[in-house]
């Protein structure tokens, strides 16, 4: 029931998404429909596609290079288009894929997605979603990921409330630089966490996200007064010991839990800084509406 004056922080939206998935069934994606699909998405949709198809022989692309991939990789036998709205670039991508003779599967949260015009009905998968602020895209892509991993959303919610909620967080307002370290097996979440920082904080807050293995490379040559936040594996090496925060993950956690807990922690950071996102989202969606030639609203119903 929130309004533009009461936009929730990201952690609240995470818990709301998990509650939704306790009640709403998730479509089961057919991972064997194509031998070598081209998985296409923009922003976090592209990252979601990489997570869902991580252990397949898929080719990945964004709106910027999908056509080149279709033209130059002849054994691509279909396109999986991931788009929460099914609008903006999605209809353009679906139409062009059809013109190039490729069957399209659409994974979306919008039963009235404009891209459906170019997709056969049996190839449309509509996932449930909550009403959320524009760009939060938490229930949207989390549902798709849970549809792949088959994790229990209730167990993830309980872990967050009982374990993460009980942590003694540092004063996040003291830091405007963060380094997030994720287990190597969650390499695919890096872009999603980066994008969420960009959307919420722009360049007001600096951030890096790397796997625990990649940390061994030259990413800490220049010291900085940043907070190192490690997920799942405790950081005993990087940064000053007084500027380290360890976030536990459930045993046998998969990408759904990693996304939910990562977003929840970013929500805690959001609470302790000026409301950059909330102050600017209306002006941004007005500009985005002009860019894309259609109405984009600050609250996605």
Q: How would you describe what is shown here?
A:
The protein is α/β, with parallel strands linked by helices and 301 residues long. The chain folds into two domains: 1-25 and 129-301, Rossmann fold (3-Layer(aba) Sandwich), CATH 3.40.50; 27-126, Rossmann fold (3-Layer(aba) Sandwich). The chain contains nine helices and eleven strands. The protein has helices at residues 10-23, 44-52, 66-72, 90-99, 138-149, 153-164, 190-201, 255-271, 276-292, and strands spanning 37-40, 59-61, 78-83, 104-108, 124-126, 132-133, 177-182, 206-211, 227-231, 244-247, 299-300. The strands form three sheets. It has a five-stranded parallel beta sheet. A four-stranded parallel beta sheet has the order 8-7-9-10, with helices on one face. The longest helix is centred in the C-terminal third of the chain and has 17 residues, at 255-271. The chain is globular, with a radius of gyration of 19 Å. It starts with 9 loop residues before the first helix and ends with a strand. The mean pLDDT is 95.
């Amino acid at each position: 029931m929130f309004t533009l004056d009461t936009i929730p922080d990201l952690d609240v939206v995470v818990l709301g998404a998990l509650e939704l998935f306790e009640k709403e069934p998730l479509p089961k994606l057919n991972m064997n429909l194509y031998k070598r699909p081209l998985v296409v998405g923009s922003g976090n949709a592209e990252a979601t596609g990489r997570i869902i198809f991580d252990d397949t022989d898929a080719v990945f692309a964004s709106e910027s290079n999908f056509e080149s991939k279709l033209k130059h990789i002849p054994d691509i036998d279909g396109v999986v288009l991931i788009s929460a709205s099914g609008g903006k670039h999605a209809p353009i991508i679906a139409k062009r894929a059809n013109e190039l003779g490729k069957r399209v599967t659409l994974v979306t949260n919008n039963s009235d997605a404009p891209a459906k015009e170019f997709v056969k009905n049996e190839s449309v998968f509509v996932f449930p979603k909550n009403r959320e602020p524009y760009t939060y895209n938490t229930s949207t892509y989390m549902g798709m990921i849970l549809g792949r991993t088959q994790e229990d959303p209730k167990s993830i919610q309980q872990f967050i409330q009982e374990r993460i909620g009980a942590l003694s967080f540092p004063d996040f307002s003291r830091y405007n630089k963060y380094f997030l370290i994720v287990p190597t097996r969650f390499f695919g979440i890096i872009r999603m966490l980066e994008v969420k920082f960009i959307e919420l904080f722009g360049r007001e807050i600096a951030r890096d996200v790397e796997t625990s293995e990649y940390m061994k490379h030259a990413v800490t040559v220049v010291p900085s007064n940043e907070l190192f936040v490690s997920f799942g594996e405790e950081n005993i090496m990087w940064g000053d010991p007084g500027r380290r925060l360890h976030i536990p993950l459930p045993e046998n956690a998969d990408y759904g839990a990693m996304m939910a807990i990562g977003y929840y922690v970013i929500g805690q950071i959001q609470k302790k800084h000026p409301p950059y996102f909330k102050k600017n989202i209306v002006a941004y969606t007005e500009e985005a509406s002009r860019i894309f030639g259609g109405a984009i609203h600050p609250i996605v119903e």
